[in-house]
Write a structure and sequence with these properties.
The chain contains eleven helices and 16 strands. With 345 residues, it is of the alpha/beta class. Strands 3, 5, 6, 7, 8, 15 and 16 form a seven-stranded mixed β-sheet that branches. Strands 11-10-9-12-13-14 form a six-stranded parallel β-sheet, with helices on both faces. A three-stranded antiparallel β-sheet has the order 2-1-4, with no helix packed on it. Strand 10 (198-203), helix 7 (206-214) and strand 11 form a beta-alpha-beta unit. The mean pLDDT is 98. It binds nicotinamide-adenine-dinucleotide and zinc ion.
């Protein structure tokens, strides 16, 4: 079968021919219908060899959907031909966190070396993929896999991040989304669907700001140093109730910190890193909660898919064939995609 693999540190991923995998006991093989292109893939492919821990060659793709094609020994309650989305943050299924569906915070994944598809295990950018357990399949039903595959990460991750701040997003509140890419443009829609907060979006690219308005942001601003003041002015200088930062580099950390109000939430979802001023006399707002959530829970994936079924969220997708997948990554790297790129094998 064909697969898109990251094979050499620092080089672009390649389409290669590899053996079609067979499902072992307890596993399920999917004939892949769609695979989403995430900036996290670009992040891991930018790492130097000393920091790269995902194994080589790596079949990419941690957003996946497919048709159940072959069922391993002992797997019950699912049938060949069913259309499924893949829950990606695989855990052990046994610990306290996994028992409540929060496999994204599995306490044993490190010990047992359990890794997500496309981020260690072979991913969805191939004609077929192996899912380690039927527990990690969520029925898509009538939802179009191509338009909805990215909800498994670009929907689930912002959903999980926003759910943790719902208490603060009462009517009259203001929420800010920094970075209107794959995740950010879905975050805006989730905020509009779940809360009555005013939604403000920031990006460095004008086309992304137009997309932000199209999907429901009430205000948009170029992401530059003066933006913190412009956003604060919308709140009469009080500051905003929650910032969701899908970039999280030093520039956006500073921006977020410059606009969040006392007792607000500062939620860092992007794969950046930097420093925040902390402490009572640091000049930072008081009693702010800073969180760095990772992906989301199994039940939250059901909830996100239901938001799509009810028409509340819609992923803006750009479709590529598997042969063209390297060019999708090239465009992602150059920030030339709008919404999410989806590979259809
Ligand atoms: P993307 O490339 O689709 O979007 C990134 C957006 O950020 C683009 O619109 C870009 O114009 C914008 N941007 C870049 N610099 C900016 C700045 N200084 N200010 C404002 N906007 C800026 O990326 P994506 O796939 O949506 O992923 C977003 C981030 O989330 C990535 O860092 C990714 O690794 C991370 N991520 C985290 C999790 C998690 O579990 N927390 C899950 C998936 C992705
Ligand atoms: Zn991702």
């Amino acid at each position: 079968m064909k697969a898109l693999q990251y094979r050499n540190i620092g080089q672009a991923p390649e389409v290669v021919e590899i053996d079609t995998p067979e499902p072992g006991p307890g596993q399920v093989r999917l004939k892949v219908t769609a695979a989403g292109v995430c900036h996290s893939d670009e992040y891991i492919m930018s790492l130097p060899e000393s920091e790269y821990v995902y194994g080589l060659p790596l079949t990419l793709g941690h957003e996946g959907a497919g048709i159940v094609d072959k069922i391993g020994e002992g797997v019950k309650y699912i049938e060949e031909g069913q259309s499924m989305a893949v829950y990606g943050p695989w855990g052990c299924g046994l610990c306290y966190e996994c028992s409540s569906g929060r496999e994204n915070y599995c306490r044993n994944a490190g010990t047992y070396g359990i890794t997500p598809p496309g981020l260690g295990a072979p991913g969805s950018m191939a004609e077929y993929m192996i899912v380690d357990s039927a527990r990690h399949l969520v029925p898509l039903g009538d939802l179009d896999p191509v338009r909805n595959v990215s909800l498994t990460d670009a929907g689930l991750t912002p959903y999980h991040g926003i759910k943790g701040s719902l208490e603060k997003l009462h009517s009259g509140a203001t929420a800010v989304v920094i970075g209107v890419g794959g995740l950010g443009h879905v975050a805006i829609q989730i905020l509009r669907a779940l809360t009555s907060a005013t939604v403000v979006a920031l990006d460095i690219d004008e086309a992304k700001l137009n997309l932000a308005s199209d999907v429901g942001a009430q205000y948009t601003f170029p992401s530059e140093a003066g933006a913190a003041t412009m956003v604060s002015d919308l709140t009469n200088g009080l500051g905003v109730d929650a910032v969701f930062d899908f970039v999280a580099n030093q520039a956006t950390l500073d921006l977020g910190q410059g606009m969040v109000r006392h007792q607000g939430d500062h939620v860092l979802l992007g794969a950046g890193a930097g420093n925040l001023k902390m402490g009572l006399v640091s000049g930072a707002a008081w009693d702010v909660s800073v969180r760095s959530p990772y992906w989301g829970s199994r039940s939250e994936l059901f909830e996100v898919l239901d938001l799509a079924r009810s028409g509340n969220i819609r992923v803006h997708t750009e479709v590529f064939s598997l042969d063209d997948a390297p060019s999708a990554y090239e465009k992602l790297k150059n920030n030339q995609l709008l919404g999410r790129a989806v590979i259809v094998p």
